[in-house]
Amino acid sequence: xxxxxxxxxxxxxxxxxxxxxxxxxxxxxxxxxxxxxxxxxxxxxxxxxxxxxxxxxxxxxxxxxxxxxxxxxxxxxxxxxxxxxxxxxxxxxxxxxxxxxxxxxxxxxxxxxxxxxxxxxxxxxxxxxxxxxxxxxxxxxxxxxxxxxxxxxxxxxxxxxxxx
Length: 164
Description:
Membrane-bound Lytic Murein Transglycosylase D, Chain A, single chain, mainly beta, Immunoglobulin-like, about 40% strand
């Protein structure tokens, strides 16, 4: 099995990210240069940044921040990390990580609480408890699309992220 040229360690798939988005991993690229790009829910590029990783054929750790311009109109988006081919300028060894923009869920965004669903609870009752407004159930649903398919189907023992 071949070792991937790029491994994104943070954020993990479906993480809720803040602004700036902190990105960490290991990889190598042509002369050690990798590129990161943020896309919104419609696939539109909203930010892009180049950064140094290891040298050609040399693994290196990377950590950097990429600013999110404005507040995305939908929570879902992606982070892409890739190398640009020296031969033809194409994007190679690309890693795509689905993410949620925290400020699109709750602005300002200050992380999230983890709530374990108890018998008899609904997203509306949880929203009432955390936000004082049962109609804010949509925020909780959007923050947990990685584990919820339907806002009317939650189960005791599920752990949900509640944006703060």
